């Protein structure tokens, strides 16, 4: 069974999309968060690559994995789904500001 777990972990490290999907399922979150995060893979993966670059620039071996990054176990960047969602502009989130809020319909009032 240990070999299967090792294989599974290495597979998650090789296929970051699978690690991201697994982390989203474990995260849960609100309905708006569940609608928001599937489209954020590229942004979050870029954050991981930046953290990996910081590790290399600090003279360390690049040992960080995307799975550990998503679990908040990275020494340079502690990723947190809730903080990422909270720091995203409201207009970029599902259920955020809509066009009709920013541009309400014009009404003529006849007296």
Description:
With 111 residues, the chain is an all-alpha fold. Helix content is 57%, strand content 0%. It is built from 7 helices and no strands. The longest helix has 17 residues. The radius of gyration is 20 Å and the shape is elongated. The mean pLDDT is 77.
Helix and strand topology:
Blueprint: H1 2-14, H2 16-27, H3 31-36, H4 41-57, H5 66-70, H6 81-86, H7 99-102
Structural class: mainly alpha
**For the CA atoms, what is the radius of gyration?**
20 Å
**How much helix is in the residues?**
55-70%
Q: Quick one: overall form?
A: elongated
Head-to-tail CA distance between termini: 79 Å
Query: What is the typical, i.e. mean, pLDDT?
Result: 77
Profile the largest sheet.
Answer: none
| Tally of separate helices | 7
Counted beta strands? 0
């Amino acid at each position: 069974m240990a070999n299967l777990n090792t294989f599974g972990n290495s597979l998650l490290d090789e296929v970051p999309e699978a690690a991201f999907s697994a982390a989203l399922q474990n995260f849960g979150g609100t309905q708006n968060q569940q609608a928001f995060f599937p489209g954020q893979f590229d942004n979050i993966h870029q954050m991981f690559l930046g953290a990996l670059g910081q590790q290399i620039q600090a003279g360390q071996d690049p040992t960080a994995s995307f799975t550990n990054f998503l679990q908040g176990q990275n020494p340079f960047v502690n990723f947190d789904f809730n903080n990422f969602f909270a720091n995203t502009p409201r207009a970029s989130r599902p259920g955020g500001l809509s066009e009709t809020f920013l541009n309400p319909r014009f009404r003529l009032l006849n007296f």
